[in-house]
Write a structure and sequence with these properties.
Length: about 110
């Protein structure tokens, strides 16, 4: 303790609580009862913990958002009109691909 302030250890507020969860954050969420029942049933049927089900669902949700963002960016890029320089470069690259890469694979 310094100057009457409470000392907080560097690895968590209470090591007796955080020792079991060194790399995970415990959190509380509110979900509808029916959804909870579905998750509970799924977890039991597939031998998952509820936490595993929720973590998997959140990861999938975040991956879908990233994919959607990537698709939006790609659509923006490819919606631009191709310049004559871009077209010439694309044709040159295709010719090189056919000559070098396809020849090596067959």
């Amino acid at each position: 303790m310094q100057d009457g302030q409470n000392y907080i250890p560097p690895y968590g507020i209470d090591m007796s609580i955080t020792r079991c969860y060194p790399f995970y954050m415990k959190t509380a969420i509110s979900i509808p009862d029916e959804l909870f029942k579905e998750v509970e049933k799924f977890a039991k049927e597939h031998q998952y913990s509820r936490s595993e089900v929720f973590v998997t669902a959140v990861k999938e949700f975040l991956n879908r958002l990233k994919s959607r963002q990537m698709l939006t960016l790609l659509n923006e890029v490819y919606s631009e009109v191709e310049t004559s320089e871009d077209a010439a470069l694309r044709k040159k690259a295709l010719k090189h691909y056919k000559k070098k890469v396809l020849k090596e694979t067959y």
